[in-house]
Amino acid sequence: MPFISAADGLIKKSTTNVENKFITKYLPELDPVAVKVYLYSLYLLQSGSSYNLEDLAATLGITEEKAKDCFIYLEEFELISIISRSPFEIKILEAENVNGTPKKIKPEKYADFTKTVQSIISGRMISSNEFLEYFCLLEDYGFEQNALIMIITYCVNLHGDNIRLQYIKKVAKSFAEDGDVTAKKVNDRLSAYTSSTPALLEIFKAAGIKKQPDVDDDKLYKKWNEELGFGDKEIIVAAKLFKARNCEKLDTAIEELFKNKKFDVKEIEDYCKNKNSIYALTLDIAKNLGVYMKNPAPYVENYVNVWCGYGFTFECLKKLSKYLFRQEKNSFEEMNGFIRKLYDSGIIADRSVDDYIEKRQAEDKLIREILTACGLTRKIVPWDRENLSKWRSWNFSDEMLLEAAKLSSGKSNPMAYIGGILSGWKTDGIYSKDKITPTASRQISSSDQKSEGSLRSNIERHYYDLRHAAEERAETAFGRAMSDSIYSELRKELNSLSIELAFAEIRDKTKAEQLSERITKLENEADGRLAILGLNKSEFIPRYSCEICSDTGYDKSGVPCVCLKQYLNSIK
């Protein structure tokens, strides 16, 4: 009976073909995990499965990094060829290497290197496979031998003879990614790391991080210190208050502080102290606005933290949320737009916000009185505020406005009629009640009053339609753009960066320049995306048919616009 036989059913099943040369020459030499990767790759190729590197690694129970290392290892034996690293793609070659050893790398070329490395890692014997990995680092990444020896020495000094190969490779690749592959560059980087070690040791002690700092930690430290602008004291305070027990958690904490513009020790302490309070504030604001929140975190991060960063106090934000609910602006997004307008106008302090709200409430009270005098019972709309602002710009007192409202009572379009009366008074220089005469109080003769009311109605409807059409086109265009996930994300990032830029212009001019460049780049990307969508950002701004009066019929001085005269001529 033969040593190996097959069941009848096996013969009928599908198979994966493997070259005999692989079995006779390569299999005895190869690393076991690399064999698994090679055989599974053959199976995927011959079965036509659409797997990628991530799928292969998951199926074999290894990391993507380990899978890549295996393919690099197999390439040394010329069993496969790596044709792309991003995305990762390979080509399986014929097994033509009759000796079963790598062709590309000749171990004798690195005889001195191997002796030196073995003397550094003296506590254990280095396997041929591990040496092969070092040879690959030298060949694939262009390391000078002395440069890689310095990296291995650094790793052994840090972790001892039991240092894992994967750790050495990780550190070496980190150097290679930054272009540090010569002995001089490696030495300079290690020297710079050594200079920052005392600071890292102090940070680790304060944070309770129980390990020796390494090059990766030094990289993070430089990011916190040089890129984000945090000093050692601030980093230590952050480590303690955030209870960061490793560098990854500390990095997350530092980035959170940076995003919320907390750079000073006191700012960091106050931020951490008030963090729970800000969550409570967010819940209060949501309650005042009538908003249901399943998870407060996004509202804290995207809205309330930003508002507090502007300088608004907790009590002020609560007051604003109650005021906006009464104004039927009952969402965080609408509140954010309102607060941005206040911030841009320099209205931040509690007193200035109180004054602003009192002013708005006084205006609303006057508008309600005007509407009542006109005989109207509807709610206040934005157009009423625009009218009040325009009439006041004509230098009319509240008393005169109410007088005009009384005279417009009973007319078909009383608010438009008020505008006509005030325009006539302005032309005649009538700005006080005692100068109002029956003639001056009439826009038209009694015989033409009915037809004039109809004319006013037509004029008001005409300009309303023009404004509404222009604004609806702009809103529709903007809605189309924001419904695109790519453009929407670009706009959110631009809004966030604009806030960062405002602070950077005060704190860090270099950072401000970098942010400006980033914003310009994103604006160009956003414009490009709009072009793909068949849109232009100019479409987001209402295109009124008349640029002089913005489709109101009156210019900024309250004088009838040229377009109004043209419209009147057209309907005569």
Can you give a write-up of this model?
This protein has 572 residues and is an all-alpha fold. 67% of the residues lie in helices and 2% in strands. It is built from 26 helices and two strands. The chain has helices at 8-12, 20-26, 32-47, 53-60, 64-76, 111-120, 128-141, 145-159, 165-177, 183-207, 215-227, 232-241, 247-259, 265-289, 297-310, 314-326, 332-344, 350-374, 382-393, 398-408, 414-428, 438-441, 449-482, 485-507, 509-532, 562-571; strands at 80-85, 88-92. A two-stranded antiparallel sheet has the order 1-2. Helix 10 (183-207) packs across helix 11 and helix 16 (314-326) packs parallel to helix 18. The protein is elongated. The chain starts with 7 loop residues before the first helix and ends with a helix. Residues 443-450 have low confidence and may be disordered.
What labels would you give this structure?
572 residues; mainly alpha; two-stranded antiparallel ribbon
Break the fold down into its secondary structure elements and pairings.
Elements: H1 8-12, H2 20-26, H3 32-47, H4 53-60, H5 64-76, E1 80-85, E2 88-92, H6 111-120, H7 128-141, H8 145-159, H9 165-177, H10 183-207, H11 215-227, H12 232-241, H13 247-259, H14 265-289, H15 297-310, H16 314-326, H17 332-344, H18 350-374, H19 382-393, H20 398-408, H21 414-428, H22 438-441, H23 449-482, H24 485-507, H25 509-532, H26 562-571
Antiparallel strand pairs: 1-2
Helix pairs in contact: 3-5, 4-5, 6-8, 7-9, 8-9, 8-10, 10-11, 10-12, 12-14, 14-15, 14-16, 15-17, 16-18, 18-20, 20-21, 24-25
